[in-house]
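stage 2 :: seqdesign
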C-alpha cells in the first residue's frame, strides 16, 4: 500500500534554540521510502546523523521568531504483520541476540523492575503461556482498563504513573505495555510514526515485542492491532524517540498531522 504522512510543527522561538529531531522515516524491510521532504521556515542549515538505534536524526539552531518545521513522506508499506499460527513463543533470555538484551532492562519511563509493576504483570499474564499469549493479554488489558484522554499526562509521566492513574495517551499506553512485558523478560521497544487508523489524527506510538525470534507490532490504543504504519523511530522509550528535543527557549504552538492511503496494497 502506498501511504503518505505529513507533519507541520509551528514554534514561537524567544532565543536561538538548538534542537534535535527525529522526523525523517527509517529505511528498512517492509517500508520502502518513495518520496520525502524536510523543510524549516525560515530556512536554516541543519546536519544529520544516525543514532544508536539506527534512527535518522537532524540537528539545527532555530532562529528567534515563528518557525515552521514541515516533514513529509510517501512510502510503500505492508499491512501490520499478522501473528502466525501457531503463535510465536517466548525466547529464553539466554538465547536472545546480543543486540536485543537492552530491551529487557528498565528505562527512563518504563520501570519494569518495580514490585508494583511485577504484581500487575503477574495479575494480567502470570498464568498464561509465555510469549504471544502474555503480550496480547497485556495489550488487551491496557486497552480495556486505561482511558484514552489528552491533557491528563505530560512528559514526566511514567509507566508506574499510568498503572496507578489509568488515563493517558498513546505514549503512556505504550510505556505501561513495555514495562509489563519487560517485567516478564520479553524484549519490548517503543516505536513512533504514522498510523492510518486513528480517530484523532496525530503522530502515534506503539510497541514491538521480540517473540519467536522476530519483532511483532502491538497497539494498546486500538481494539485490535491493525492498519498501515510508517515507522519513523524506535528505541527503549520516549526518551529515545522524541520527535523534537529542544535546548533553549521555544514553545510549540501547533502540530498538524495528515495521513492518507493512496493506492491498493502491494507487498514490499
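stage 2 :: out
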Amino acid at each position: 500500500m502506498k501511504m503518505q504522512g505529513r507533519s507541520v510543527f509551528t514554534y514561537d522561538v524567544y532565543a536561538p534554540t538548538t534542537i534535535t529531531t527525529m522526523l525523517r522515516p527509517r529505511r528498512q524491510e517492509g517500508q520502502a521510502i518513495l518520496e520525502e521532504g524536510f523543510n524549516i521556515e525560515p530556512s536554516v542549515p541543519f546536519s544529520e546523523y544516525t543514532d544508536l538505534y539506527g534512527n535518522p536524526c537532524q540537528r539545527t539552531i532555530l532562529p528567534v521568531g515563528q518557525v515552521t518545521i514541515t516533514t513529509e513522506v510517501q512510502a510503500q508499506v505492508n499491512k501490520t504483520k499478522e501473528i502466525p499460527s501457531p503463535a510465536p513463543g517466548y525466547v529464553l533470555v539466554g538465547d536472545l541476540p546480543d543486540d536485543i538484551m537492552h530491551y529487557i532492562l528498565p528505562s527512563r519511563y518504563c520501570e519494569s523492575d518495580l514490585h508494583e509493576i511485577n504484581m500487575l504483570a503477574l495479575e494480567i499474564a502470570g498464568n498464561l503461556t509465555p510469549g504471544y499469549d502474555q503480550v496480547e493479554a497485556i495489550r488487551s488489558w491496557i486497552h480495556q482498563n486505561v482511558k484514552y484522554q489528552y491533557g491528563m499526562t505530560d512528559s514526566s509521566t511514567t509507566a508506574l504513573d499510568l498503572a496507578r492513574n489509568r488515563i493517558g495517551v498513546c505514549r503512556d499506553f505504550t510505556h505501561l505495555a513495555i514495562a509489563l512485558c519487560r517485567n516478564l523478560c520479553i524484549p519490548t521497544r517503543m516505536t513512533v510514526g504514522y498510523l492510518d487508523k486513528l480517530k484523532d489524527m496525530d503522530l502515534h506510538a506503539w510497541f514491538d515485542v521480540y517473540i519467536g525470534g522476530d519483532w511483532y507490532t502491538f497497539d494498546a490504543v486500538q481494539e485490535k492491532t491493525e492498519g498501515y504504519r510508517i515507522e519513523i523511530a524506535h528505541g527503549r522509550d520516549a526518551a529515545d524517540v522524541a520527535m523534537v528535543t529542544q535546548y533553549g527557549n521555544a514553545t510549540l504552538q501547533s502540530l498538524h498531522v495528515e495521513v492518507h492511503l493512496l493506492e491498493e496494497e502491494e507487498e514490499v
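stage 3 :: structure notes
- The mean pLDDT is 95.
- Residues 94 and 101 are 10 Å apart (CA to CA).
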